Amino acid sequence: MSNVIIHVSPLTAPWSGSDPFLFCAHHLDHYPASDGDMGVPAAALNGRPLGNDFSRQAGFNMYYGERVPGFPAHPHRGFETVTFVRRGYVDHSDSLGATARYGAGDVQWLTAGKGIQHAEMFPLLDQDADNTLELFQIWLNLPASDKFADPEFKIFWREDIPVWRQPDPHVANAVNEVTVIAGTFASETGAALTPPSPPAHSWGAREDAELAIWAIRLSPGQKLTLPAAQRDGLQRVLYVYGGESLTVAGQALEARSQIQLEPQAACEISNTGTSLLEIMLMQARPINEPVAARGPFVMNTEAELHQARLDYGRTQFGGWPWDQAGPLHRADVGRFATNPNRK
User: What DSSP line would sit under 137-165, residue for residue?
Assistant: First the structure.
């Protein structure tokens, strides 16, 4: 290993996190054209275990949806979800009465805090062509001091998310870009790029956490230099999920790898393969607290997990104001959010 690369391991699903990141689920589903009502045509549902479908039949899952794919109402407490939707759309509804449709490059950052129910459904909006969905959902822990914060979510619209690009004058249509979802990206050749701020009680809202989430894409032959972090004591991990091969700090590696880096060293990445190289970078200062996690709850102790189950059974974290477990918004509405910061 170089003095920049600390550890390399195979990338497995879901991607294992490094404190404060719990894990990342990468969903890539090639849904067919809509049935005309935002759902999957009945013929494509035959033989599936509907209500719990992770079969990958015909290149897609229905998850817990039965006609429209997605995740109907379910609770969370004690952590955050950061959902980056590269392709397709998500219809959000929650127990506080907030709604949203986001996708095609948008990010939702949800601090569950003391407890919230929400639904994440994947409406198929195109009746004349396939409806591909690609999203990344990162589970990010909260420290004990914020596990009972009021729930909050923010939408980062794609128009507000900065993207660093470096055109190659010798290669037409080459991709060399970093989508800056969290943290500041400072390239060697341009101004620093900073995305919208996370919710107030996020670990990422603390300046000294130096939390960063960067989506990196490089065409064959392209390269970029990751800037050194400004503080010590951080974790920096690359999740290489697309492409064939690359070099990191001069070391040849294969794709489908999870690479832990020394964050205080600048590091050059180069695509040595013949297809698009795709990487998600996650970096932050660890919370360094005990983690007790089970299902939709992430706390510090088993006693707190037990209390979370009792509280949810008693209060439903605000109840469910919708007439179905997986609400959908009208097919003809675009991207929107109502009451995104309601507490």
Answer: EEEEE--GGGTTSPPEEEEE-GGGS-EEE
